[in-house]
Amino acid sequence: QVQLVESGGGLVQPGGSLRLSCAGSGFFVSDYAITWFRQAPRKGLEWVSAINSAGDDTMYADPVKGRFTISRDDANDTLYLQARSLKPEDTSVYYCSVVDDWGEGTLVTVSP
Fold first, then answer.
1. Residue 46: beta bridge partners?
2. What is the 3-state secondary structure (H, E, C) of the chain?
3. C-alpha closest to that of 87 among 60, 70, 109
4. Using one digit for the tens of pLDDT, what is the confidence trace for 56-89?
5. CB 3.0 to 4.6 Å from 96: which of 22, 26, 75, 104, for a disulfide?
6. What's the rounded Cα separation, in Å, for the pair 78 and 72?
């Protein structure tokens, strides 16, 4: 059974940083591209970033480009999203996804 578990969220001040993690199990993590999404309060789901299975191709949504970095540690079946220079508008629940499976998300709140 595919399972994805996000962690690393929390309350951070504007300009701060967080590293989000996504631990995968029940499948060969290294065989799949992984995507991060987010959903802000009272807003729809937004695509954030993706990384291919080899880890050598990454993509970012314009609002996070230059501030967020996606990476993968296949030896530990874990994906990361390093978020820097956080802004209040980054406040969201962040989800990782592989194919049609999703985790339950981790909440990031950016506030003074």
1. 38
2. CCEEEEECCEEECCCCCEEEEEEEECCCHHHCCEEEEEECCCCCEEEEEEECCCCCCEEECCCCCCCEEEEEEHHHCEEEEEECCCCHHHCEEEEEEECCEECCCEEEEECC
3. 109
4. 999 999 999 999 999 999 999 999 999 999 999 9
5. 22
6. 6
